[in-house]
Amino acid sequence: MVAASCHTKTKETGSSSAQYNDTVVTPADTTYLIGMDIPEYKDLPRQFVANHDRSMTYHMNLMESFEAAGYGTYSTRPDYYGGSYIDDNGNFVILIKGNPSDYRAEIEERIKGKDVIFKQTDISFVELNEIMDTINICASENRQNNKIAQNILSVALDEVNSRIRVGLKDFNPQAIEEFKEEVMNSPYIEFEQGGYIQLE
Would you tell me which CATH number, out of the four given (2.40.50, 1.10.3470, 3.30.300, 3.10.129), belongs to the domain 125-193? Predict the structure, then answer.
């Protein structure tokens, strides 16, 4: 039902918009794809596939480096790390809390490559997960007697936009205000109409 972990009400958190955006990368080599017949790739541009493969390697290297350095769990990621994802061109994007230039050399060493896009965020991956944990605890504890908890259908981490997305059964201004008053009031939370998964 929910993606991770509403205990007591927490204080409102602040937010500011990101400014840094380093998007210059070298396209990945595509020659290894010549003659390859992979069904999953047949409708995708060759350059996207090569970029995506490289990005998956970068992501694996990053996670392994975090693990080796004692940052292996969601709650122990480095304070500067805001998350990562693969964009529409297949390129690896890393979000940095602070000045990305200060961490470029470290990240390049961790991923064992240089073709990565850096973007700035104002909240860390750990902080986002703390928000999500708070909501998930509320959504699961005493659910039968708590109408606010019953109204929470989903909680998801949106690393691309540095937000926590909360799906509500009753999606209206009153329900959102009740959530903010009783659970958490944070600019990093975005509300949307929740829905049940239909099983076929």
Answer: 3.30.300
